[in-house]
Automatic annotation (TrEMBL):
Top-rank taxon, per record: Eukaryota
UniProt-listed SUPFAM superfamilies: ARM repeat
Gene that encodes it: Pkp2
Keyword Repeat attributed: yes
A single Gene Ontology CC term: intercalated disc
Organism of derivation: Cephalopterus ornatus (Amazonian umbrellabird)
UniProt KW Transmembrane helix keyword: no
Name of the protein in question: PKP2 protein
Alphabetized InterPro entries for the sequence: ARM-like, ARM-type_fold, Armadillo, Plakophilin/d_Catenin
Region (Disordered): 79-109
Gene3D superfamilies, sorted: Leucine-rich Repeat Variant
Assigned protein family: Belongs to the beta-catenin family.
Subcellular localization: Cell junction
Keywords: Cell adhesion, Cell junction, Repeat
A biological process term (GO) from this entry: protein localization to plasma membrane
Length: 296
């Protein structure tokens, strides 16, 4: 667990270690099967996998990167983007979102396991069943890492979490735990998931009122609460930017007074959150059909 925090070279060596990732996954599967999701070794295993999934898309060996992205290159042979990970434009993001990954291997080995649906379901199972905060946070954090990029892999993982594995109820429950780091990581994961336009309505329907409930009545005092609040605002921005219906959902959940209060903070206590709330307000105002409802 300590060694998996040793930076890019340490992660690379551990990912390449024959049988290591497979053994960690095997142990966690056994713990879940034995109804022991709270044991310390399971926590350690999940924390290692969390660390090994950090910047995975960027650090993948060229052979994996080529096989994952070959399909996209074949579909869009006119795309002049240099390299696999170079661009972050909206157009390319949307193209990635529509491009499926090559068919999953039924029996993944080593680094392939890190983004496989089997492990995604294991993380969701631990989020639902474990009561250890570190295990919950590491499971959420691993999913956050896997959904953090802009290529087809993060969007495929996001689709698995939301649509194939029905992960939103378990993630939603983590918004209401008392542990601030778990809550913050759950919000960060939802922020990543909400970038996927095809999932936004599902996410809004399932968790938008809960996200509003997480928002404080005024500017939060602690750094972690400040970051969580900013992340909630940006998630709500993603969910409502292109959807008047979702903006109305936010209004129905009494989100507007909270967002206004956060945005009006003029101290340096939590400038990140007040800026995020202001961006959200500006976006909400673009839905002209809701102006009368806003004014009321």
């Amino acid at each position: 667990r300590n060694m998996s925090s040793a930076g890019p070279e340490g992660r690379k060596k551990m990912r390449e270690c024959d049988g290591l990732i497979d053994s960690l996954v095997y142990y966690i599967q056994g713990a879940i099967a034995d109804h022991e999701p709270n044991d310390k070794a399971t926590e350690n295993c999940v924390c290692i996998l969390h660390n090994l999934s950090y910047q995975l898309e960027i650090e993948l060996p060229e052979s994996y990167a080529q096989s994952i992205y070959m399909q996209r290159r074949n579909i869009s042979s006119n795309d002049k983007t240099p390299g696999c990970f170079g661009t972050r434009s909206r157009k390319v993001k949307e193209k990635h979102q529509d491009t499926p990954l090559p068919e999953e291997k039924s029996n993944p080995k080593g680094v392939e396991s890190l983004w496989h649906s089997t492990l995604i379901r294991i993380y969701l199972s631990l989020i639902a069943k474990s009561t250890r905060n570190y295990t919950q946070e590491a499971s959420l954090g691993a999913l956050q890492n896997l959904t953090a990029g802009t290529g087809p892999m993060p969007f495929a993982v996001a689709r698995t979490v939301v649509q194939k594995a029905n992960g939103l109820p378990s993630i939603r429950n983590m918004l209401h735990v008392s542990h601030p780091a778990v809550k913050k990581t759950a919000v960060s994961l939802l922020r990543n998931l909400s970038r996927n336009t095809s999932l936004q309505n599902d996410i809004a329907r399932e968790v938008l009122p809960d996200l509003v409930a997480v928002l404080p009545e005024s500017v939060p005092g602690s750094d972690i609460a400040c970051e969580t609040t900013a992340s909630v605002c940006y998630t709500l921005y993603n969910l409502t930017q292109s959807s008047s219906h979702n903006a109305r959902l936010l209004l129905s959940a009494d989100g507007l007074p909270k967002i206004i209060a956060i945005s009006m903070n003029d101290s340096n206590m939590c400038i990140k959150a007040s800026r995020a709330a202001s961006v959200l307000l500006y976006s909400l105002w673009s839905h002209t059909d809701l102006h009368n409802a806003y004014k009321k």
